[in-house]
Structure formats: structure tokens, C-alpha cells
Amino acid sequence: MTSPTRNWPVFASLQDYRRGWIRPDVVAGLTVWAVLVPEALAYATIAGVPPVVGLYAAVPSLILYAAVGSSRHLVVGPMSATAALSAAIVAPMAGADGGKYVALSAVLAIATGLVGLLAGLIRLGFIASFISEPVLEGFIVGLALTIVIGQVPKLFGVEKSSGNFFEQAWGVITRLGDTQWRTLLIGALTLAVVLGFKRWLPLIPGSLLAVLLGIAAVAVFDLADQGVAIVGHIEAGLPAVGLPDGVGFDDYVDLLGPAVGVLLIGFAEGLGAAKTYAAKAGYEVDANRELLGLGASNLGAGLASGMVVNGSLSKTAVNGGAGAKSQVSGLVVAVLTITTLLFLTGLFEKLPEATLAAVVIAAVIELVDIAALRRLYGVWTARLGRIYGHAARADFAAAIAAMAGVLFFDTLPGLVIGIGVSMLLLLYRASRPHVAQLAKQGNLWIDAERHPELPTRPDVLVVRVESGLFFANCDHVKTRIEDLCTERTRLVVLDAETSPYVDVTAAEMLVQLRNTLSQSGIELRVARDIGQFRDTLRRTDSVGVYATIADALADSSVDEST
After folding, report:
1. Is residue 310 classed as helix, strand or coil in its secondary structure?
2. What is the mean pLDDT of residues 258-281?
């Protein structure tokens, strides 16, 4: 089947658009808009730029991602992790110059966009393949928990602590005595509305209703004058478009390196969210197109006087939960955000921060997929995990390491830990392939440990290595075969059908294994070798090679029928 992204390289998610999708896409767009506007304002503050800069960045990123990206559900916009990283990168360069600070924030977005476009064009999306599914699951759980704890202070009306997940959680606990009961009441009621509608009336956009009710409550009961925090003043109007003023070429060059880190965080979070909802909807995302989409979004955001953006886990959860079917929902959000900049800034000025926090928590909590971690642990402890113990333990450990990395060390270090664990996991598995002892069932030779009811011959050991043989795993294979031999073993047959290749080091290992076994009166033979494996063995002083296991057994002092 031809990929739709090749037939329709622009706005690919709109191909085969169905008329029945209009309503859910519009409803989802309205719901995401209600969350995106106040979040964009807050994340701009985290980045150290005026709140309206978050809205400036949102509009072009939504449109350009819809045009270039491959996900039907991903929402791109300002996010807390990249906003905080932006502040850390820009502050030392800008010093006390506020105007240059804003300009450099836009330059960082442009640099991130250029790096992303280049990475997508030269097809570096394969980098995502080195982040294993368990690592990605652990990373998403850790990131979701971090987002949740970051919103809890707004829910209680207390000051937010800095630091990692645990430091922020401890900060909330120590400040519970300062809880603003009106703020907590609004947040709790918002959570009840959102979760209740999601559970019992999923067709009604509970998040949008909760936002409108929160704004109405502030207006009717003058809650802002009673200590309830609201979003506050938002500057109206559209941004200037073009390269930022007050910066030079050297600034762009200096920010290219840091832009790689920003891109990596944005790519990981966006790809994780995109894959999560693509799996639920039954389609696939293209990692290279995700890089292009992220690059185009950041380039557009920077040229529109905005800040760095990335795929949002929380807003994508809101989008998917509201029933979005395509990127039409993102385009609806873009149109509504433009409308907000022009006419509706006054409306969102009265939005309670507790309401916003509750909406975000309700959206993200479903991504804390503890069930997935339990499944990985279950594989470890199950019988299959005992058979393939190394891989099962490594998967669970990788997921926990990625999650703990985010919780203890924040997003960027957590991602680096996750990628490092993925690499170690790959090397670990490659160096520890499963070496199965085989038992005969009819004309087939199958894993004896999976089928303990099948008898094995004490004088014959037939083994299979479920991997190619090369320098990194040959010692493990040699040791494993030697361990499987008993005092009664007289013949070892290596079934090479599942080993598509062998290097010179591994071929020499087979020679050493033959010599070692012969000292104990055991003969080593290879059966069913294929392709490159056969070619390499024939060029070395290796072992006897046979077309089938039966041939290897027949041409020996051991009778196959015994």
C-alpha cells in the first residue's frame, strides 16, 4: 500500500476526510482552544517573555504542523519543558536587556526550526528507533506525572516550588496550610465536571464547559478580589512577522547547538504523544515527517515573534479525549487563537488558574499508564520471562529508568537517560541472545524449555542461537553451549537456521568450541546454515556443515533413532 504522505505531501491527515468528522473536529478544536490559550500564556511566562508571545507562537505552529506533520491528533504549541529550557539558554546571552531577551527567544525558535527541517530532510527520524517502546512508555509516564505535579499548586492556590518532581511534591505538602479554599473548591469542581462528563457524557466537551463555568464564576462572584488567581491582562493584536530585530548572524550560530537539545526534547514528547494516539486510532506516524513538522512549526513560531514550540502531551490528550479525527481540529484552534488575539483577550483574563490546572490534570492523568508498567513487570515474572529473562528484565528496568530519569532529573536529563538505556538495552540483548536447547516433535525441532513434555536425548544436544553470531555475543554463546552439555553428551548440533550471519571472531569461536568439546569426547557440527553464515564458515577452519539436523545426526557414531 502506498503511503498517503507520499501521495499528498501537504495536509496529509486530511486525505479521505469524512463529512461525519466535522463536528468532532470542531468540538475538539474548541476544547483545545480553551486549554491552549491560557496554557500558552503561562508557558510564555516560564520562558521569560511577555504572555502574549505564547499565543503568537501557537498560531503558525498549529497551521504548519497540520500542513507538514503526520499525526492526526498531535497539537503543537508552547510547552513547559521547552519553555524552561528556552529561558535557561537565552538568559545568559541576553543579560539584562529585555528587548534582546525576547528577540533571542524568537531566534532560538528559528534555529530549532532549521535544525528540525534539516534533520527531517536527511531522514534522521530513525533516531527514534533507538528509543525502545518500554523506554518511551516510561518517559511518557514520568513526563505526565511531572506535568500533573506542576499543576497541583495552582489547584490549591499555593506557591509552586522549583526542582524535580519530588521536590515539587514536597513543596506542595509543606504548603498545604496555605491552601486557598475558594481556589481549591473551583479546582475540585472543575475536576469533577471534566472527569464526570468524560465518564458518563463523553459526547459533551466537559473541558470547554468547565472553562466557561470558571470564567462565569469569577465574573459573578468577584472571585478575583477574594484571592482566586486568574490569568490576568493579555495584550491584544497580531504579531509582527519577520526576522527578529536587534540580533546578528553570530547569535543564530551560537544558538544552533542549544537548538539541538530543544529539538530532541520536543521530538521525544511529540513523538510519544503522536504514537500513543495513532495506536488508539489505528494509523501510523512517520518519524521523519514529525521532524519536518516540528521544524516548520518552530520556524513559523520564530518568524511570528513567538517562542519555541513542540508537540504537547497534555493538549494532545485533550484533543484526543474530545474526539478529534484529523488536523482540522488544529486548524480550528489556530483560527480561534487569531480571533482571541483580536477580540477575546478580555474573556480569558478572567479564567481561574485552578480551572486551567484541573483541565490539564484531567487530560494528562490517563497517560500515567501504570498498567503498561505492570504488563512489563508481568512479563518479567511470568514463565516466558524466566525463559527470556535477560530481555524481560531489561525491558522493565529500561521503562523504570526512563521514568525515574524524568522524575529525578527533569525532562532533558531524563530523555538522555532514556536514550542511553535504549542503547545499553540494544547492546545487552545483542550480546545475550537466547540459546535454546531443541527437542524433536515429528519432523520439527522446537525449544525444549517451552515444551518440557517433549523428551530430549541425553547423548545428543541440539541447540539454536536466536541471533546472528558476532564478536559481542560469541563468548556468551560458547559458554551457554558448554553449560548445556552433560557427562553423557557425545554430539552437539548447532541449528544455524536462525543465525543469518557470522563474523570471523564468531567463526573462530566455533573452532575453539569444537576443540574444547573434543577434549571431552564431544563432536560439534553445524546444520542448516544459510547465506553469509555458510560463506564465512567455508572460508575458515571451522566445523562440519550439514544440510539438515537429520544429516548431522545420521553421519555420526550416534544413531538418530536411539
Report:
1. strand
2. 88
